[in-house]
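Follow-up to my post from last week.
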Amino acid sequence: MRLAERARTLSESATLRVTRKTAELRAAGREVISFGAGEPDFPSPPVAIEAARRALAEGFTRYTAAAGIPELRQALAARYGERWGAPWTADETLISVGAKAALFQLMMLLLEDGGELVLHMPAWVSFEAQARFAGGQVVSAETSVDDRYAIHADTLIAAMGPRTRAVLVNTPCNPTGGVMSAGQLERLATACAERRVVLIADETYERFVYDRAAASSAAALAARFPETVTVVGSFSKTYAMTGWRVGYVLGPRALITKLGALQSHVTSNPTSFAMRGALAALSGAEDDVRRMIEAFSLRRDLVVDRLAAMPGVRVKPPAGAFYVLPDISALFGRRIDGSVALAEYLLETAGVAVVPGIAFGSDHHIRLSFASAEAELETGLARMASALATLGP
Ligand code: PLP
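User reply:
Got it. Predicted complex:
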């Protein structure tokens, strides 16, 4: 068999690999506490489940329009209009098979022949894999634990050049929890529009912001920069609906129309009854969302508190999302020579699964998700503390 050149450097998503390894160990009888998975432990909203059940019972099981059901496109456009004053219509809104497919399709439409995607780092594993698969390359702008990984416009603008085809901001960010303020977003959106470069804002975690901070969204800038501002979102995290696979994109009409054409050849529509469930969640699950985010806020404090007490672990409270990315490089020595070695040590010794930071472009870190029950977090962190305490040089 001869694989295409673009398949050569492709490997499994590091976060999904941790999920798979954890499942394998559990199947073999090991008790493992996982801080690996990027998914809320909360159940999907009852209104979504009921709506999907009804859709199935009514026989809503056939292909729909490739760009998604009109009611959901309309409802999302209306929601972004009300919340952020965005001018997008249903035609400028596409429903995708999770945000992941939307992002991949965007990269396929925007990048080619080494065209550059400007991206802040550390970053979610799939951005670079997708960009490269599409024939592009990533130019990175660093963020730092010192200012809680805040995303600054100037570093991204400085990374732009003649080959830049898109700038991607992921706010709040997986894996850092960093956010971009409304002012910084405005500065970046202005620079992108001046250069006619598409600004992709991946706002998959938009509702997960803590400390009563004001949320920000690039959608608030869409009316001013209708040719370039593009927002990607998802039902996965906000509504604890990861397995349903419903995401979306709102943006310039020409781009959304092309995305619809591409999607019609790739996935066709997202699952019909899942979209009915998503529609119900959008209008009827606000209490579920609030409850979950309140719980996550408390968990964040707990995790940061426990990690900060571990020698050699440097951590600051993440402003958003549901991950912490502590710097663990002070633990490096003869036995541990990087984030993969530390993750393996924690899995072997403590039965705790974390994701090595190298997967996100930084070998000095590990990522822990705090989207699991408090008791599990307590036990896992206590086991991690004693494993690190016994770690000799
Ligand atoms: N974007 C970011 C930053 C993510 O962390 C994820 C999932 O982990 C996604 C997009 C994809 O989400 P989904 O495809 O489940 O909507």
